[in-house]
Amino acid sequence: MTEHRASFDATIKFSNGGDLTAHGFRVDVPSPDMDEDDIAALFVASLGLLMTDSVTLANVEIFAEPHKGTRGGPSDHGRRRPPAGGRLVLLHTGDDARFGSPAYAEGRHFLTQAGAAWLAEHDAALVGIDALNIDDTADRQRPAHTLLLAAGIPVVEHLTGLEQLPPTGAWFTAVPLRIEKLGTNPVRAFARLPG
Questions:
Q1: Under 8 Å between Cβ of 155 and 145
Q2: How far is CA 193 from the centre of its chain?
Q3: Nearest alpha carbon to residue 183 among 2, 15, 64
Q4: What are the phi and psi torsion angles at 30 (to 5°)?
């Protein structure tokens, strides 16, 4: 079977400040028909980056070349490898038509400040919730949100489709959207299910 890699220039901006630029960066890709959003997600995941605000790719080229072992890529045999095969499940549809999504399913729960503190103390890598807001919408101070971000823990709100995920084994990715900042950092969240 022919293996493929992608080459591209990239600029990543971070929500906590700063940026990263790469020229001629290469990643292993599972197929020659990957779109730029999927390549950007693989790029961010391969570097293990957090708090990305936006990813812009340029000069994207996909070509036949043996895989080199991109972390999280199709030939990565390490522990952090996403499931081989399987299908992608969109987890975040957003609440705004400008994001290209029709609707979202708002949960009726929120994270307490004590819960957020517990997650921060136990080194959570990311906190996601299927509610519109991680805090009680009546509390304008947003204590859970503020505490988690201060601890460097990204927050992904109003996720959908979570019922499609198995208890373990799915690989979560959140890719920044290419839109102007609207007071938040909107992402397209998806999971790759085990094959």
A1: yes
A2: 15
A3: 15
A4: -75, -20
Sequence-distant (≥ 6) Cβ neighbours of residue 190 within 8 angstroms: 41, 88, 89, 90, 91, 92, 172, 173, 175
Report the C-alpha gap between 83 and 156 in whole angstroms: 22
Coil, strand or helix at 61 = strand
**Which class for 116: exposed (0-12), middle (13-18), buried (19 or more C-beta within 10 A)?**
buried
Report DSSP state, residue 187.
Answer: E
Q: Can you tell me the distance from the alpha carbon of 127 to that of 130, in angstroms, rounded to the nearest whole number?
A: 11
Q: Which two tokens stand for residue 111?
A: 């994270």
- The structure tokens 């591209």 sit at 8
Mention every residue, 6+ apart, whose C-beta is less than 8 A from residue 168.
none
Q: Match 């996403």 to its residue by tokens.
A: 82
pLDDT-derived band at 102 (thresholds 50, 70, 90) equals: very low
pTM of the model: 0.51
User: In terms of Cα–Cα distance, which of 14, 91, 17, 16 is closest to 47?
Assistant: 14
Q: What pLDDT, on a 0 to 100 scale, did the predictor assign at position 180?
A: 62
